[in-house]
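$ ./design --mode recover --in tokens.txt
reading tokens...
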């Protein structure tokens, strides 16, 4: 497993992704191995360890605004959405990221 999949793979271009929404500082894309029917990941383009370590409030506000926009689009298309971020031992990749998802769970590993 990658220590920071998002920097090492996604943002470097080593793992291609299908972009959903992009700003100067934030990227939202379809998960490369989705757990749910609709599964979008939203990340800052600069390394931030987690929600507990972010210090740039401007970046946090931009990140939340992108999460909000992506989630609103999912609700419009699917009727419902969930937003999730993991912390501590639950956080596989040590780069702040939010999952926006909807529909049935298609993978459990």
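writing sequence...
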């Amino acid at each position: 497993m990658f220590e920071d999949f998002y920097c090492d793979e996604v943002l470097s271009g080593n793992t291609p992704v299908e972009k959903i929404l992009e700003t100067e500082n934030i990227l939202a894309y379809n998960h490369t191995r989705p757990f749910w029917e609709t599964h979008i990941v939203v990340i800052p383009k600069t390394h931030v360890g987690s929600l507990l370590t972010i210090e740039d409030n401007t970046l946090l506000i931009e990140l939340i605004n992108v999460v909000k926009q992506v989630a609103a689009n999912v609700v419009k298309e699917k009727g419902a959405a969930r937003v999730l971020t993991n912390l501590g031992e639950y956080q596989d990749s040590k780069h702040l990221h939010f999952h926006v998802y909807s529909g049935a769970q298609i993978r459990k590993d």
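exit 0
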